[in-house]
Amino acid sequence: MTEVFPDISNPDAGPEDLHQALTKLFIDTITNQPRSLQKRIGPSEYGHPCDRRIGAKLAGAQVVNNRGIPWKPLIGTNMHEWAKETVARHTLTLPLADILGPRYMVEMRVNVGDEIDGEPLNGDCDIYDRVTATALDYKFVGGEQLRGYRANGPGPQYRVQAHSYARGWVRKGYPVRHVAVWFLPRDQEFRQNHFWSEPYDEQIVIDAMNRAAGISRMVSALGTAALPILSTADAMCTYCPYFLPASTEVEQACPGHPGATGYVR
Predict the structure, then answer these.
(1) pTM (2 d.p.)
(2) CA-to-CA distance for 28 and 36, rounded, in angstroms?
(3) Other CB atoms within 10 A of residue 228 CB
(4) Average pLDDT score over residue span 157-167
């Protein structure tokens, strides 16, 4: 039998009060989740093609491009959780799994290697498949982005991220032959997914770490005064947290890449 609680209804309250209460709950929860509060740079960021954006992150520059509540990233985060649970339930798919162990290693933390800005470069790889020796990352994206990735591949940011996870698995003692990024539709049918892969290449990671380390040294020496010196790239400027159109004080906000027309991830 359902328990009946005391009546706390307020005759002066209506559906609009419910809307406000739930909106506040959602906003508070979203803005205080770990991904929203993350401060250090990680494998998903240090391969970004814009040096200035990386420098601003490392310098702890103020966010000036507040795009509101990160609703779409929240959807992606929750889809990641669903995918994690789905694959985790089917890890023991190898013959003699009780002896050989699971096929899939799901959302495991890996250490990519060298420190950047005094912090170890760690990340959580979505899947490592022991049968194909593949490190895989999911991306839940909108239709326009999905079409771009299908036509042009993942771009430098996600490519570096995939190879970084692979290097982390190698450092754990596992063989890696391939990296993959699985682009899954956030607002379309599943059949429109796109699976990208290529052979693992450690040099891609080493080059990206050296680049980020160089930016870090500049920022450590000059602070935000390094930002005007750092180069920019045509890479979704309007989504950058440090973007402010027509800004003339680059140390405080970036006006964007000159002549930016599209996006590259």
Answers:
(1) 0.86
(2) 11
(3) 13
(4) 96
